[in-house]
Amino acid sequence: MTGPGNEAIYRRLIEEGFNQGNLAVADELVSPGAREHQRGSEDGPEGVKKTIKYLRSAFPDFKITIDEVVVSGDKVWARQRGGGTNLGSFAGHLPSGRKAFTEVIDICRIEDGKIVEHWGVPDQLGMMMQLGHITPPARPATVSG
């Protein structure tokens, strides 16, 4: 399956899985042998479920907003923004109580109606700065001359 069908699969995983917390959708839409290429994430539907549970425990109001999707052959490319209010432990830090969002680029390869590979590139530095866990460097003084 290519084209709009693959986009619908991707959007359904985001909406039902990540935004609504329906873990069963991972079993339906992610192949048992799916490879995960995002650092810190695990393969297959169980890896997707762990990621969903982790994000929704750290950010109970977690939501992903898809800004743009491009389908090319068996791949779905998406630019999106995800986050919420940090009320649970995140990245080894206590809850900050702050709202924080990260920009994410996702690429999924889909075969026979199931996601078989995923690459994700979240702006982790930006998220940690918003949560107050990393202090941005001071701006250098401008030199006039």
Description:
This protein has 145 residues and is of the alpha+beta class. It has one domain (4-130): Nuclear Transport Factor 2, Chain: A. 30% of the residues lie in helices and 34% in strands. It has four helices and five strands, in the order H-H-E-H-E-E-E-E-H. Strands 1-5-4-3-2 form a five-stranded mixed beta sheet. The longest helix is centred in the N-terminal third of the chain and has 16 residues, at 4-19. It is globular and about 60 Å long. It starts with a helix and ends in a 15-residue tail after the last helix.
Keywords:
globular, Nuclear Transport Factor 2, Chain: A, alpha+beta, 145 residues, 30% helix, 5 strands, five-stranded mixed beta sheet
Number of alpha- plus pi-helical segments = 4
> How much helical structure, as a percent, in the residues?
25-40%
Task: Please indicate the count of domains.
Answer: 1
Largest sheet: 5 strands, mixed
Overall 3D form: globular
User: Mind telling me the CATH class?
Assistant: Alpha Beta
Q: What is the average per-residue confidence, as pLDDT, rounded to a whole number?
A: 94
Quick structural overview:
With 145 residues, the protein is of the alpha+beta class. It has helices spanning 4-19, 24-29, 44-58, 124-130, and strands at residues 30-36, 63-72, 75-85, 99-111, 114-122. The protein has a single domain (4-130), classed as Nuclear Transport Factor 2, Chain: A (Roll), CATH 3.10.450.50.
